[in-house]
Structure formats: structure tokens, C-alpha cells
Amino acid sequence: MTNAESEPVIGALRPLVAETAGARIADRFVTAIALGQFVVGQKLPTVQELSKLLEVSPTTVREALTRLAALGYVTVQRGRHGGTVVTSQWGPASDSMVRRALEPGWDQLEVTLDYRSLIEQQIARTAAVRHTAEDADRIRRAVAGYEAADSDRESSRIADLEVHQAIAAATHNAQLADLSLRIRRDVSLGFDAEPYSPEVRARAIDQHARLAEAILGARADEAARLAEEHFSLTAETLRTLHTRIESADPRRVSSDPNPTES
Fold first, then answer.
1. Mean pLDDT (whole number) for 168-194
2. CATH number at residue 228
3. How confident is the model at residue 198 (pLDDT cuts 50, 70, 90)?
4. pLDDT for the residue 155
5. Which residue intervals define the domain HTH gntR-type in the entry (predicted)?
6. What are 170-175's contacts with CB under 8 Å, separation 24+?
7. 135 & 210 share domain
């Protein structure tokens, strides 16, 4: 057995098939935009950054972005300060593109979301027991930083990541911290960003504060419970989107097999 065959797959994503990689990346982008991982008016990372993030070639990324531009999800601005900017959160093609991105691996994604909840509960519980004064300072700064990020999407994403990296670091177990990052990437379709909306952000601000308080108060069971509550935000948002595209799927429209006259 080769290393590739023996290595366990942690999450729902699978390697892209080369001949359809551009289309699949475009589907992932539209899904990420629908989830608020990227918001209208936000500039996307560069082609090179996206290539590294998604582990595909720059050519594949460019193909995906060309598709998105043709469908009206992004515009490409030329020049020194140009880039690719999100212009639409949902469009006529969204139902089918999101369906292609989510449905084939949905059952495995549900397993991964459950796995994440269990891991993050253990991280919070362990951080509550093991954190040092230095860890406490970092966690407090991170929580304050997320609140200060306000409505800027990219700043909010980076600040949210720092909150959870600070908590994971407080376990003093490098494998747990690495596992948290890998699962985050997996449930975010490779984009390393949680779902976002003003409502989700408001809930996250409150949950971060309560989670940090429980950890720093060494209340391990409470910290685990609050971690479960907090990470359900991502699961809820994904399930809501999945339900939306399921209900819009023409293949699921059923008719009454025994219609009656009125």
C-alpha cells in the first residue's frame, strides 16, 4: 500500500479531477460567496495566493475566475491597484453550482462537521486546564481584535482565525492545533474562511467572549459546551444553504400519485 493510499482523509474534500478542475473551482467559489466567505465589494486574493490555497494550478484558478466573471459574480479590475472583486452574492446559476459543490460529498461533510465539533470541544476543555498567563493574554487580545475588526470581511476573517489559534495554542499540543486548522480548511471548501453575515458576526462576538471567559476561568466543561455552541454556527449556515438548494432542485419536485378532482 502506498503512502497516499494509507493516509487517512480527514474531511469532505477530495482532489480535483484535472479535466474539470476549473469548473469545480468555480462551483466552490460560488458556494463560498453564497456562504459569505467572500462578500460583495471584497477583493479576492491574487491568482497565485488562490492557487496555493486551493492546491491547484494558476491556470485552473484563472479559468474559474473567467467563468465567474462571465456569470456576473465578479469583475476584474485592471491596473496597479486592480484585482478581482465580488459583485454578486447569488445569481441565476447559483442553485446548480452550489448543488454540484455540496451534494456529492454532503454526507461526508456532515461527518466532518460532527468531527470538528468533537475536536473543538476537546481543544476548549484542554485549554481551560493547561493555559498559562501568556496564553490568557493572547486569547484576550484575540477576542478584542475580532470585535475591533468591525465589518471589514478580511480583517474579520484574520481576527477570527487568531481567536481559535490562540485557544488551540493554549492546549500546548501541536497536533491538536494543526488538526483544528486542517478541519477549518476542509469545512470551508478550501478557502480557510468561516461563513459570514452581520448576524453571524454578532453572535460570534458574544460567543468568543463567553468561550474565552470559561477557558480563562478554568471551567473546562463549560468551555467545551460553549465551543460546541460556537462551531454550530458554521454547521447551521452550511445546512441552511444545503436545504435551500435541495428545495430548488427540480429533480426533487414530486407530484401527487393519486390526484383528486376538486
1. 97
2. 1.20.120.530
3. very high
4. 95
5. 19-89
6. 170/126, 170/127, 170/130, 170/131, 170/132, 170/135, 170/136, 170/138, 170/139, 170/215, 171/123, 171/126, 171/127, 171/130, 172/130, 173/126
7. yes
